[in-house]
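ok so i was messing around last nite and threw this chain in just to see what happens. nothing serious, just curious
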Amino acid sequence: MPILPLHGQGAFLGPEVPVFDDAVLVRDRARGRALAEHLADAPALVMRGNGAVTVGASVGEAVALMWVAGGERPHERHRRRLGHPHPHHARRAAGLAGPCVPN
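result:
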């Protein structure tokens, strides 16, 4: 299940953050290629059981995106507990404000 950014800064991660379900550590070219293919054009990817990876136009941008991705974790936990989310990018496109979780 992809992670859906639910707060303003999370919007830098795009509409969703893909999850690489292979929990084996990336230690060879084949697995690295598989991870890169799964990442595609996304700026971040969660590696099931092994953290996350971010990419950017510079090392600084990649580090900043990792910081944003880390801040998204508590929101993701709440989303999974509360039900269907209203992702930030969709709410902004619809001109909505307020809570990102259903009433």
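not much to say yet. Residues 96-103 have pLDDT under 50 and may be disordered.
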